[in-house]
Structure formats: C-alpha cells, structure tokens
Amino acid sequence: MTGTLLKDCAAVVTGDQVLRDVDILISGPAIHAIGKDLSAAAPLGTEVIDARGWFVYPGLVNTHHHFFQCFVRNRVDLDWTRLSLIEWLDKIYPIFARLTEDCFHHASVTALAELAKHGCTTAFDHQYCYPRSAGKRIIDRQFEAAEKIGLRFHAGRGVNTLPKSMGSTIPDEMLETTDEYLADCERLIAGYHDGGQFSMRQVALAPCQPVNCHKETFTESLSLARQHGLILHTHAGEGESEVIRARHGLRTVDYLEQMGFCGPDTFYAHGWELTEGELAQLAASGTGISHCPEPVYLVGAEVTPIPAMQALGVRIGLGCDGAASNDNSNLMHCLHSAYMLQCLVASGRSHPVPLPADFLRYGTSGGASLLGRADIGKLAPGMAADLFAIDTRRMDYVGTRHDPESLIARVGIGMPTDLTMVNGRIVWDGEGFPGLDEMQMAAEAEAALATIQF
Predict the structure, then answer these.
(1) Mapping DSSP to helix (H, G, I), strand (E, B) and coil, where does residue 50 land?
(2) Among 217, 218, 190, which Cα is nearest to 203's?
(3) Is the dihedral of CA 322, 327, 330, 332 positive or negative?
(4) Position 279 in a domain
(5) Whole-structure pTM value
(6) Residues 423, 364 share a domain
(7) By its UniProt entry, which CDD domains does this protein fall under (predicted)?
(8) Which of 8, 26, 52 is nearest to 391 (CA)?
(9) Which of 4, 128, 287, 417 falls 20 to 30 Å from 280 in CA-CA distance?
(10) Is the domain of 196 the same as that of 285?
(11) Are 184 and 157 in contact (CB under 8 A)?
C-alpha cells in the first residue's frame, strides 16, 4: 500500500483557510495534494477512506505536560482546593519519589494514548522527576511508549539541582547534580535526537524551574543546547517571580534573560503572572509561552493574559500540563478551556479576546513554532500528514458546521476523534489503536499504579 486518500472531506481546515468538499492524498509521511477529485492521481494500492461528513484538522501539538503525574489523578487527598501549597508539596513529592521506571513508562503510555484519542499528534513532555530508585532511563522508556502509540515525541529532559536547605521545594532523593544531568542529556542526544524532516524523536533541555535549580544548571543547559541546536524550556511566571527577586534581585524574566535563557529557540510554560512589560520583552527576544489553561482553574492566581500576548506578538502554544493541576491529557479540551477562560475575564482587559480560530492555531502551528518545527502544524502539500478528523454528521454538531475553524474552541468536542494520523499512519481509528489492545494497556498501567503506596 503506497498511501491514503481521504475522499470527499466535508471541510479541511488547513491552518490558513477552510476548503470544502475536497480530498487529501497522502504519500508516505507527507501530504501529496489537497483538492477535488484526486482519485485519478492516487497510485495503485492507495487506501481510500470515505471522509464524507468529516472535518479534518492539523494534528494538535502539545507543548507542555508531565506524563508521570497521570498516576496521581482524581485524588481528593491531593486536592489543591483543600490543601495549602506547602501541605500539597509535602504530600505529593514523597509519592513521586516512589515511582519506578515501569511507572514512568506506563504513565507515559496512558498520557500518549489519551492525547492521540483527542487529536494530538505531537507531544512535548517535561520530565523533571528523577527519583534515585527509578534510575536514568526514564526518557528512554518514554520514547518506547511514544513509538508504541505512534505519536511524534519531543522529550524535555528536566532536572532539579537545588537542595531544600537552599530554598528548593524538591526532596533530596529527587535531586541530581548539574554534571550528571548534562551527561545524561549528552547520552539522550546521541541516542535519540533526530533533527531531520518528519522526525519522530527529538530532545530538548529543560531545567525544571529557576526556584529549584542552581544558576549554573541553566547556563550549562543553554551552552549544550545551542551547541547541538536544541530547544530550551522551563517553567516561568507561575508565581515564583518575587521569590527569584528576593534571591537574585531580578524577577524571573529578567533573571533568565540576563543568562541568555531566552530567544527563538526557547519557550516557557505558563506565564500567568507576567507583566505587560515582561511580555514585551518575550516578544522582542522571540521567546514563546506554552499556555496551560486548565491548571489556571486550580493554581493560577489570575487568568493568563493571552490577548496581551497576542497583541504584543508573543509566540503562543498550548499544553495540557500534568495531573498535579489537570486531571486529563486532552489537548482538544484545553483548547476549549483556553478560549472560555479568556471570555470569562474579557471585560476587565484592554485587549479583546482573540478569535476562536486563533486558539486552534495556538494548538497547531503555534505549538509547532515553539518546538522549532516547520514540517507540522498545518495541512498543505509537503507538510507531514499529521491530522485528525471529526465526523460532524451527529446531533452534537447541528447548527455548528458553518464555521469549522471555530468549532473546537467555541463549542468543544465531547468525544474522541474519528481518526488521528501521524506521518501518514493511522494511530487511532475512532474505535481503537490499530495493532494494540487498549484493555491490555490499561490493565498493565493499573498494575504498575498498584505498586505505589499512597
């Protein structure tokens, strides 16, 4: 079989326009053509899929997650609304410190499967938790999980180096030295990183956050990443800026910029506490923000100023974040949440809420920009065949079909996709994961979860 033809799509949202009643011809990992009546152009052996009624979108790009936290979901005893931050940290980190290598693997399978079901085709995970009992091969097992599900995976190799005695929130059994962190980064880069077109595996350097790392961890990460042409990432602007000012005399954005940890190859997670002046600094340097809307409900002191970011020209992507502050791995749901949150606070702001279609772009081409990818995030000839489809011939969509670009952000999608494809390969067909037993995967994950004592 040489490719796939999605025949008679009701709408194709390319990222630049909406095309009605067209076909998509896919050859290998890439889109070959989008247009009407492409059957004659399809080589012999092309699989033809009836796409009547389908709205087809670029695959979603998740730019911030913590897969391992899938094993602490839906627990009232760890509820942010019932605990102070210190109480929560005292409860959650001893649990994280007991995770094994297998726990990290099965939590990753869990998160990646849920992401794929809901249209995500590329996922960035910020893996900063390295308990000594789990060893150093956690990201190796994440790459294994991503290959199993079939998602494009960017591994953010995180680290915490500052001890609690110096103001960190991280238990000593989860600390690493900067040198051992850099050595493992070198190993991962050599073993996995592929910077080529349509690559399925990339590595990024991602110190957890300034409050939990020595300054040298950031400066050495910066040096190594630039040496290899890698993306840089960290948490910033999620309530720590005054702590950083007390320690270093600068708020977080200035502290990171002074080190050079900023620029078109760098993006931060969250940014809900940043001033408009700081956002202007990000725009000027080309530094991006991964907006994680659902944690704002639980832990954000204020709603992230997305309208100001867009007005200033800050690059914006979307992320699920981990289950410490978001109990699902559904980026499509986050897209709807992001739009609705901005509508909630619109009356008190000087910039208008971006259009619903802009939020779709944050979750597709915006995320691709943060990850330094020019081959994903849009549907066009030559781009990766990363896409998802929704059959809109259901009662759920009556009255909505006139505006495919706004559908997800404004209306929300309450079910899995009818198809998710990565690099021309179907990874979710609307009913299951081709070649995989979902029930078995779930049972294996539950067995790993059962080894943890809460």
Answers:
(1) strand
(2) 190
(3) negative
(4) yes
(5) 0.97
(6) no
(7) ATZ_TRZ_like
(8) 52
(9) 128
(10) yes
(11) yes
Full domain range(s) for residue 214: 60-370
Coil/strand/helix, residue 65: coil
The model's pLDDT over 255-281, given as tens digits with 9 standing for 90+, comes to 999 999 999 999 999 999 999 999 999
CB 75 within 8 A of CB 89: no
Is 179 in the same domain as 278?
A: yes
pLDDT tens, position by position, 417-442: 999 999 999 999 999 999 999 999 99
Q: Dump pLDDT digits (tens) for 34-51.
A: 999 999 999 999 999 999
Pair 80, 133 in one domain = yes
Nearest 5°: CA angle at 176, between 175 and 181?
145
- Cβ–Cβ under 8 Å, residues 3 and 27: yes
Q: Which band of pLDDT confidence, cut at 50, 70 and 90, is reported for residue 345?
A: very high
d(CA 43, CA 31): 14
What distance, in Å, lies between the first and last C-alpha atoms of the chain? 49
Burial 273-304 (b: 16+ CB within 10 A, else e): bbeeebbbbbbebbbbbbbbbbbbeebbeebb
pLDDT the model gives residue 133:
87
Only one residue has tokens 């070649």, namely 435
20 token code pair: 């009605």
Report the CATH number at residue 409.
2.30.40.10
